[in-house]
Amino acid sequence: MTEPATVGGELAGEVLVLNAGSSSLKISVHTRSGDCLWRDQSNWSIGAAERTAPEERLEAVLDAWLPEALSAWGEGLIRAGHRVVHGGERFTAPVRLDAEVLEVLEGLVPLAPLHNGPALRVMRWLTHWKPAIEQWACFDTAFHGTLPEAARTYAIPVHWRAEGLRRFGFHGLNHQHVAETVARRGEDLRLISCHLGAGCSLCAIRGGLSIATTMGYTPLEGLVMATRSGSIDPGLLLHLLRRGVTAEELDHDLQQESGLLGLSQLSPSMKDLRQAAAEGHAGAELAIAVFRHQLLQGIGAMAASLGGVDVIALTGGIGEHDRALGQELEAALTWLEPFELLRVPADEEGVIARHCAAAGA
Known about the structure:
The protein has helices at about 55-70, 100-110, 115-130, 150, 160, 170-180, 235-240, 245-255, 260-265, 270-280, 280-305, 315-320, 325-330, 350-360, and strands at about 5, 10, 15-20, 25-30, 35-45, 80-85, 95, 135-140, 190-195, 200-205, 210-215, 310-315, 340-345. It is an alpha/beta fold. The model is unreliable at about 1-10 and about 45-55 (pLDDT under 50).
């Protein structure tokens, strides 16, 4: 936790940003330009709310933590922005919360239950605690609203497509941050943004616009992730369903037991796997190899969409901190040269703050 910043002796921030995950909440206070003045984080799966039922822990932690944590800002917080993972087809830009919007967001929870559900509960809690605060929802899917029809359309029956089953893409807030950070190098740059963390996705960006991405209708598609499988043959899933595996079991195994954890049978953490691989752990070696193989394939696909690459930017926990990965990519991608390989610290919260300041101006 950092201490609140001041300007001329007065607390200076006015945009509160809330980033709700499946078991944690990041909060921060920003200037209108997105500069972070203060941040904190809490986990509602353990700690103060330990003895409450799982579905009650979030509100219990909020009650015990947020009013005190934000007390220094008093009435200076007049606007709040929430990260919402899935905006569906309706929301392609930040939207101010009201009863109608909240109802629509409720209907989108099944598309990203691990994230949309908690975000909605935080919105309702904040409305009850500070009814005067102006709240905005900012969507991870919105940046990908520029995907061409060929890039967003699945080759599925027309009646499925009529139901809105298409590629949405995710991590858009951070992909946008990367695009804005790199934009100073040229207006029409061919950029591949590599968001590599617990969740992983690539985005092909030309002239600041998303034209291709690896995640799809849900955040399960694409690269190998910490505990998520990424893309696999749909026929494999049909095979498991015919064997009697339930949809709920499939969902759990694909979301929580796959990825780096499932491959290594050791850990979902790339840092742990690097150390174990150095000691000869076969599962860790396999996990790193599969992760790298899929990443290289994905970068090749994004490069094909762009017709070449000027910049490859690594962001997210793995992208920013795994130095070995950067070296491996440089060695494996000599065929793409010349390109610049950058590391860009993730800043979804700063993008949300700027969206809220602009939308509420």
